Amino acid sequence: MALSRLTPLYRAALVMREIGGMRYADIAQALEQKAKNVDVLLFRAVPGFRQEYLKAMESTGLPTSIARRRHGCCLPMWMTRIGPNGSSSG
Predict the structure, then answer these.
(1) What CATH number is attached to the domain comprising 31?
(2) Amino acid 50: pLDDT
(3) Is residue 90 in some structural domain?
(4) Residue 82: CB partners within 8 Å, gap ≥ 6?
(5) Which residue from 31, 46, 47, 83 has the highest number of Cβ atoms inside 10 Å of its Cβ?
(6) What is the Cα–Cα distance from 2 to 83, expressed in whole angstroms?
(7) How many angstroms separate the first and last alpha carbons of the chain?
(8) Residue range of the domain that includes 8
(9) Full-prediction pTM beyond 0.90?
(10) Quick check: helix, strand or coil at residue 32?
């Protein structure tokens, strides 16, 4: 659900990088973007996804830690390094 709330361009860049393991140059070519734009897309997509993911977990009515266990999911490491406003937290 959280992924579907991102814009198509943010979603595509995020999936290609984090799930597909694609390099920025390959993502840029696939999305018909400049390579430097891929960095910006991902910088904006990660906190957006994180925010939507946490909202979805909160909507279950369970504490976030319990909701994560019940739904068999947790925040990937790359999401824990980005603050809610896009700043790095570590």
Answers:
(1) 1.10.10
(2) 84
(3) no
(4) 46, 47, 50, 88, 89
(5) 46
(6) 17
(7) 27
(8) 3-80
(9) no
(10) coil
Asked whether residue 87 is assigned to any structural domain, the reply reads: no
Q: Considering its fold, how many domains does the chain have in total? A: 1
Amino acid at site 64: T
Q: Which two tokens stand for residue 19?
A: 């799930």
Q: What is the DSSP letter of 23?
A: -
pLDDT tens string 44-61: 998 888 888 888 877 777
Three-state secondary structure call for residue 58: helix
Cβ neighbors of 68 (< 8 A, separation 6 or more) are 57, 74, 75
pLDDT in tens, 1-36: 788 888 999 999 999 998 899 999 999 999 999 989
Read off the pLDDT band of 80 (50, 70, 90). low
- Return the residue matching tokens 């999936």: 15
